[in-house]
Amino acid sequence: MPRRSIFQAKAGINSRTPNIGDVQRSVIIAGEKMTETTPFHVIRSWQPDRPHVLVVACSDGRLQEPLDDFLNRALGIVSYDRIYLPGGPAALSPAASEHTRLEIASKEFHFLLDAHQIETVILTYHCSAEGGPEASVCADYRRMYPSYSAERVRKQQELDTEEILRGPLSEFKLEQVLAFRMEVGANYEIDVKSLL
């Protein structure tokens, strides 16, 4: 079945409907009607000051809210620049990444470090904890290392961190580099462990 836009899905419009341009498409978000011509008004305003913190994390959406919670409650970070990629920091590791992927990710990473005047970089991985669910092992690491156990993936993430410190991060004078792994336990609880 073809993909539908949020407007099509919320309005119950099938993407195979003929003359879709003639149909009024709208969606209700937080009780407010939003159409393609009427924008949703965001309460928070744009801030002119950059946060000077860059978080590199896996794009796995199941971990984005827990990551925000950790950054806010443990480190006091509410606003930060983000690079979300499959495997997160793995895309920056010469050991774990294909050459083309590494080249592209490093170029974008270096751009943000320079253009956004980044002072702190936080590398964030995820994996299952010992005894945790197999499905919580990073899918990108599974793709790169299909025969690795979760324990071996965790070790590879530590090696990748060392490679990133010697490689893409070595050219920049940063105030702080932090590396963490979010480990999912048997009951889906998440513990965050420092890798540095």
What would you say this structure looks like, in words?
- With 196 residues, the chain is α/β, with parallel strands linked by helices.
- The chain is 30% helix and 21% strand.
- The chain contains five helices and seven strands.
- The chain has helices at residues 6-11, 64-75, 99-115, 139-144, 150-166; strands at residues 26-29, 32-35, 53-58, 81-85, 120-128, 176-184, 190-194.
- Strands 4-3-5-6-7 form a five-stranded mixed beta sheet, sandwiched between helices.
- The radius of gyration is 20 Å and the shape is globular.
Using the alpha-carbon principal axes, give the shape. globular
End-to-end Cα distance: 46 Å
State the share of residues found in helices, binned by percent.
25-40%
Give the structural class. alpha/beta
What share of residues are in beta strands?
A: 15-25%
Number of strands: 7
Strand order of the largest sheet: 4-3-5-6-7
Summarize the structure.
The protein has five helices and seven strands; from the N terminus they run H-E-E-E-H-E-H-E-H-H-E-E.
What labels describe this entry?
single chain; 196 residues; alpha/beta; five-stranded mixed beta sheet; two-stranded antiparallel ribbon; 5 helices; 30% helix; 21% strand
Topology, please?
Blueprint: H1 6-11, E1 26-29, E2 32-35, E3 53-58, H2 64-75, E4 81-85, H3 99-115, E5 120-128, H4 139-144, H5 150-166, E6 176-184, E7 190-194
Parallel strand pairs: 3-4, 3-5, 5-6
Antiparallel strand pairs: 1-2, 6-7
